[in-house]
Structure prediction request, 179 residues.
Amino acid sequence: MILLVDWERVYNLLNEVTPLPVDCGQLCGSICCLEWEKGVGMYLLPGEEVMFDRAEEWLDWQEHAAEEYEYCPASQGSLYFVICRGVCPRARRPFACRTFPVSPYLTPSGILELRLEGAAIPVCPLVRAGDINVLDRRFLARARLAWEELLGDPLIRELVEWESRSLDRQAGEPWRKPL
Prediction:
């Protein structure tokens, strides 16, 4: 397997930055680092599994065939879903944790934007605030650099593109429009 992403470099970009210049976990009791609801976890990005040996005592691993899920059609083979069993070693946390509470969005013309993660509304006061500008600029700059590097991998780009178009479709649903 040829790696298109230098995962060590991508992880290192986000080692020293956090969403706020202070511990944002004090706002919510670090709920994003807990299994706040049974089975809550995250999918690893294609290729990210190389950063783990699957013997981590702090992670439960699930492997799924991509074809069995409503997931990006370009995804093939195995999808890796991980669930935290408690507090992880910060330097080993998955990419999704490193960029929480932002996610990438590709405009229809292919321009990368960072957006607040809509699925985080129930747990993250920063997302509920509704303003990405409350986040630390250094964190946002590093998250952007990491995503720009990741988008060089065709599978990751296809996944972000697919998720972005899904968000576009959801935004156009009648129940989301003001009356």
